[in-house]
UniProtKB/TrEMBL annotation:
PANTHER family in the cross-refs: METAL-SULFUR CLUSTER BIOSYNTHESIS PROTEINS YUAD-RELATED, MOSC DOMAIN-CONTAINING PROTEIN
Any GO molecular function: molybdenum ion binding
Protein origin, superkingdom: Bacteria
Name of protein: MOSC domain-containing protein
Protein source organism: Micromonospora polyrhachis
InterPro entries named in the record: MoCF_Sase_C, MOSC_domain, Pyrv_Knase-like_insert_dom_sf
Domain spans labelled MOSC: 14-168
Pfam family name, one: MOSC
Amino acid sequence: MEPVVAAVSRSATHTFSKPHQASIRLLAGLGVEGDAHLGRTVKHRSRVARDPQQPNLRQVHLIHGELHDELRAAGFTVSPGALGENITTRGVDLLGLPTGTRLQLGGTAVIEVTGLRNPCAQINGLQDGLMAAVLGRDDDGNVIRKAGVMAVVLREGEVRPGDPIHVELAPQPHRPLQPV
């Protein structure tokens, strides 16, 4: 399957889930126009409490639609935007991308992957047990965070469901994603 944008979502307030949209506009250096997390500095409440001047490395949240499939198979009711993502993808191994990978979304928008989303306990507010379902362990017992990746906007543009995604891996040596 060719990489594609499956859905786009945004919320002007700090709600956990984000409603679907026909399109979203990404603004360079800021994030998703009209989204509560828009800005050059952090907008996530816990990060603002620690240091409101930190750069916003979480301007855009992406989740692979294949995670929704996995969660539905485990008995959860999830759909695009339910876990707070702005962009739901198909056909891209988001969690396997190295830090600094660039994704061109549609004709003009370009984002750079900054790291993994570290899921918080609010996920259980959506459905009991969901937090455990978006965390796993590898063979060595290390935590695997499956709740998507975060990115910053390098070039603005409109993003719509059905838009192609072009992946440009970061230069070697690749650095694995870490929570941001």
